[in-house]
Amino acid sequence: MATATLSESNSSAPSVGGPLLGDAEFQFMRDFVYQHCGISLGEQKRQLVQGRLLRRLRALGLRDFAAYCELLRREPEGELGELASVISTNVTSFFREMHHYDLLINELLPRWLEEKKHGGRLRIWSAGCSTGEEPYALAMVLAEALERTKSTVDARILATDLSPQALETARAGTYPLERMGGVSEARRNRWFLRGEGSYEGWACVHPRLRELVTIQPLNLLHEWPMRGPFDAIFCRNVVIYFDKPTKQRLFERYAGLVEQGGYLFLGHSESMYGLSDSFELVGRTVYRKRAS
């Protein structure tokens, strides 16, 4: 029986699922992803990357991974969002980590609305908004606070992500009912329009929530067009993909955009310990910007 080995020049060798990802192509992708996304791909991720990118190769009509790498060299920005969608996992839900929303509802939003009632602006950034559940959940509690206090404060939520597919879902604002387990019955009735006919089993966010949320593409490692300041930044389950230097740079950039005394919210498995002196821990993965 003949045997074959995978070498740098053997990236197009046939396999049951399609072409193989060779050493040279995988190393190029590792360097490319780290440079443009800040994500470190270990050797153990090779099979995962190969499997997920095969669908992308077929969609683009490319023969092998060498051709895909050439596309990245030729049009890095044009394909970056699609590549990021492939290698990252967009796992999110409405009102995930409810203690963050409780803090907003019970303490932060009432305080901010009172402080800004004579002309201030309230701004929250959902950085890494994925398919939109997080910013729309934020919009629900914000809209409720505005109604409850009869506030006319200029309040907005910015939602950004690198993935074109995730942003498309977020802009559509339409979700299957089974994805809405974290939304109470009262909020479902208040903030969602239930689908009928061919849209049976789906729900669309209320126009009021769309008014509060601006959705834009953004690479966190590139230039940021917004200048802030933000009262709070939600960057949850995003920095788990980054190495320490990338996290440090990102946290300092956040510090430059957060109001004095403003807040940064991280995911349940994330921490700023030893990474930034600009914030202090004040709750479960809740950080407040220190006084300068």
Automatic annotation (TrEMBL):
<protein>
    <recommendedName>
        <fullName>Chemotaxis protein methyltransferase</fullName>
        <ecNumber>2.1.1.80</ecNumber>
    </recommendedName>
</protein>
<keyword id="KW-0808">Transferase</keyword>
<keyword id="KW-0949">S-adenosyl-L-methionine</keyword>
<dbReference type="InterPro" id="IPR029063">
    <property type="entry name" value="SAM-dependent_MTases_sf"/>
</dbReference>
<dbReference type="InterPro" id="IPR000780">
    <property type="entry name" value="CheR_MeTrfase"/>
</dbReference>
<dbReference type="InterPro" id="IPR026024">
    <property type="entry name" value="Chemotaxis_MeTrfase_CheR"/>
</dbReference>
<dbReference type="Pfam" id="PF01739">
    <property type="entry name" value="CheR"/>
</dbReference>
<dbReference type="InterPro" id="IPR050903">
    <property type="entry name" value="Bact_Chemotaxis_MeTrfase"/>
</dbReference>
<dbReference type="InterPro" id="IPR036804">
    <property type="entry name" value="CheR_N_sf"/>
</dbReference>
<dbReference type="Pfam" id="PF03705">
    <property type="entry name" value="CheR_N"/>
</dbReference>
<dbReference type="InterPro" id="IPR022642">
    <property type="entry name" value="CheR_C"/>
</dbReference>
<keyword id="KW-0489">Methyltransferase</keyword>
<feature type="domain" description="CheR-type methyltransferase">
    <location>
        <begin position="21"/>
        <end position="292"/>
    </location>
</feature>
<dbReference type="InterPro" id="IPR022641">
    <property type="entry name" value="CheR_N"/>
</dbReference>
<comment type="function">
    <text>Methylation of the membrane-bound methyl-accepting chemotaxis proteins (MCP) to form gamma-glutamyl methyl ester residues in MCP.</text>
</comment>
